[in-house]
């Protein structure tokens, strides 16, 4: 396997010390920072960072702390001040443009957490993973460390396996020794660390039960009372370097076990699948957000998963049943940074910058009006849209714009599968906000178990159907959306990738299942883009429509166009003309509706918190004219913006315009709730306190039909 591209940087910290760090993976992915143990370089994580299955899912920055590896020497007490370590971390974050990374620290690398909590803003981290980690130096090292770790030991004092692991991890790179006494004597203030824990900073501990270098339970005794969102896993290994029990050091021995499980793609043993079905479902999302494999192992990594690592022992002796119950808390570790994770939807769009905390500046001065169309008159608009709703995301997790969805990455947004309370969200949206439609995205690969052309997997469909039935139970309409961007693993349907027959077979099976459900809507495909031949794409859509109708389903079918089915380009890129040729088997166009998306940020990427347009002049007015002149209708199934004042203003204007043209615009669906955390830049998931749900700003002040009064 070839080494992925890496970027190494020598970074100048605030006191002039040079710190070396190296990044691997795509910056579009979630961000993690890897800190090695005392005296070692970030090279101990090289095997992890060069594994293709992970560097495609995360952006990993491995660090040589000051005085270690390739960083500048740190020979004085002054150079080891706590604030300098915090400044080093801050410089690394800026140098690599990191957004709320997760700190993954091995051994005394964990002391960085105390430095960061003390000197940097509370929003610096999304969470922390300790691999046999110690959260501060000073007296804790004296109390936790076994005698051999308190004095720099020669290689002969290490076990053979420990030495081999370190050699394999570090390769041929130079590792500096360090003055342990000077490091451990540095003063660290723990008050803010405790505050961070009490305020909910997630912390995951992974320790070897037979660690020969530290008394790991002492660290837990200190920290567990401080961190209200903490999980612990003890792995039956003997080394301080938490590794799996493989003899081949060139393969897996240098992986911390928590990483190894992730890269193995969930190595279930046959007898364990049925025994731990619920655990399996909880664990499946490892690939969905990339780094979530690190955070969520705290609730998913059960005995079956860690069998290759010598087994896992729950600290409560009950195989960690209690950890499964709190899945949603560990998930928030990653979802807190999901202003970046929107790239599982649109990583290849015009831009995907990191985002900061939601801005609160006033929007541009505008007057809230209801523009009128200049198009020729047609059937009189009612002034009330037929549909308004929210995307309930989760089964689409792991899907990129290349259409390389992974079945194991889907995460059902239902509590019975250890997801968010999608059922409660939908019930709230219907009863309190007046919503009447939900879009339920799902990856094609998930439904067929990653087998192109294969039949739908009954067990997977049962899980997806649980969400569909939950949606139907609210009385709302439910859009089944295949979230593959017109692709299967970056190959375009009907144009060198899956055949139209394979695509039609998928839709035939889905339609047959839901043909008798009048409130089901079929969303043929999410956001096709970069389609070489729009007319060939229309042929693929026709194949799906014919299959759906031949299965006996007569409900609405949504027809998507090119350029992420953007409302602004729907006419100019030929989508409208090509899709106008798609017909029902009888030659008519009843219940065939154009599917269009439009966000309100500067580049229509749906990645920025602020909004700059109401889309009327550049998108909706031309589209309304075309629809009315050609006797067609469209449904805006993705739209949204940040929870800021500018988006409230512009969203109200957009919805008002749509409501003024209800003869051709059916409604809107916001992006997104479900398994997204409310802190997500386009988050529309409500929060619950007791029995009370609270909407996000954009929903409460613009998108809720109870607020705008523009939905029938």
From TrEMBL:
Catalytic activity: Endohydrolysis of (1->4)-beta-D-glucosidic linkages in cellulose, lichenin and cereal beta-D-glucans
Upper classification of the organism: Eukaryota, Fungi, Dikarya, Basidiomycota, Agaricomycotina
Family: Belongs to the glycosyl hydrolase 5 (cellulase A) family.
Protein's recorded name: cellulase
GO MF term list: cellulase activity
GO biological process: cellulose catabolic process
Keyword annotations from UniProtKB, A to Z: Carbohydrate metabolism, Cellulose degradation, Glycosidase, Hydrolase, Polysaccharide degradation, Signal
AB hydrolase-1 domain location: 32-248
